[in-house]
Description:
By secondary structure, the protein is mainly β. The protein contains one helix and nine strands. The strands form two sheets. Strands 1, 2, 3, 6 and 7 form a five-stranded antiparallel sheet that branches.
Amino acid sequence: MKTAIRAGLVAALAGATVLAAPAQAATITQKTAVCHSGDFGGSFTLRYETSGGYHHMLGATTSSGPYIGDAGNLLLRISYRDGFTTHTIYTRSVPTSGTTSLTLPPGVDVPATALGTASTTFSNGTDSCIATVPIT
């Protein structure tokens, strides 16, 4: 009986397929920052994934004002520092009416070894503030 089991096990192992280990899965990070100027304020959330030695920007969500639906503008700026040089890799200015969701295009990547930041300037025409998150 033991011989039959061993023979079956050897046959099964001989025909087994060895699968390569899956590549390291990307880690998705979400960071939020807030800012205030008097009654006016803003909240900025950035989402990015880290893989292959880079932080790949996915999207951002913002909200601003003291009231839902407040109209204004926002300016999103993503940059990183490499040694003594600062590289601005993405800038976008859009009107907002309180809450805005942004999908960032492919290629907005920060090297994982660099110090990156993403900042959003909120303005309602009277007040403004800047919310900044680190990209690490």
